[in-house]
Description:
The protein has 359 residues and is mainly beta. The protein contains 2 helices and 26 strands.
Amino acid sequence: MLSLKLGALGKATALAYALAIISGWPGAATAQEAPAQVVERTVKALPNRDTQIGVYLNVLPDCTSGPLPTIRLASPPSAGKVVVKTAKVKATNYKACLALEVPAYVAFYKSPPDYLGKDVLTIGKVGVLWKLNRVTGQYEDSAQTVFQNVFDKIDPKTGIPTYRKDVLDAKIGDWISSCPGPAGGHDWPATSYDPKTDLMVIPLHQSCVLMRAEPMEKKIGVGGDAGSQKLFEMPGTDGNLGKLAAYNTTTMKALWSFQQKAPFLTGVLTTDGGVGFVGDFDRRVRGFETATGRTLWQTRLPTSAQGHIVSYAVDGKQYIAIESGLGGGSPVGKPTTLLPGIHHPNNGNTLLVFALPDN
């Protein structure tokens, strides 16, 4: 008997089930006499799509087909279903057979249409992309999206970070470096997930700071930031504050990224057509190919593109709405200091709508 245990992922979540192959192997007179074998694997699957999880055949020494095993589902998945179909399999150089075509059983897994798995991804100001189990909260993986020196290390098993010793020991009046700085590696501009490519597209900011806590008299009426800071460019960026990166949520590796002087100030919008949109401090809005990051279209606005880009349709015609405006705290204030060569108009609050071409 061969018992096959598989984990299938409907977008980054493990589903456990087992296929038991209980008879039909050559040399086994009965199912009880069949040799026992256990195979474990993990499979990634898009929601509501058939994903092949196994092919089962029986090729004899003379390159003909022997009796096929009997397959039953011993333990069903927690979501979705497993289906076993009959098929003809063609192969070359299989078990010394130069070419063969034999019958086989092929197993497929299919998740529910709206099943997105049990993973949750989040990214904060340090610029570390975290992947957790959204049901249990257990750490699964992480990726450093920009240079950071806030943490000395991140435990690969627990995900618990360790701060630099000089950060922990800092006293009032001590200058401490921090990468990223107050604008964060990632701040309020939202990420966007594209299920077709399994990519998380993230707008990132690359600048650092030297900061010092200042003494403050402890009495009513005294307040303020009680700190000083000196901004500087992030190492290895050549002064590029803006970075747009796409991370595969399965591997947690960057598939593509590009840098530019101006930081991105809008959330990212990805669409079902494989096109994404994002806007920046230098008044530029671009449409890009989600799978590659290649720029497909761009234009300039009255002032910086900010807020959240939205898409909507009227009578079958699709539109993209984008805000341009002022304000925004550190994500706007820091590039104003670090990028004196970029003109940032102090007016131009506008809502602009662009129509997508019919084709």
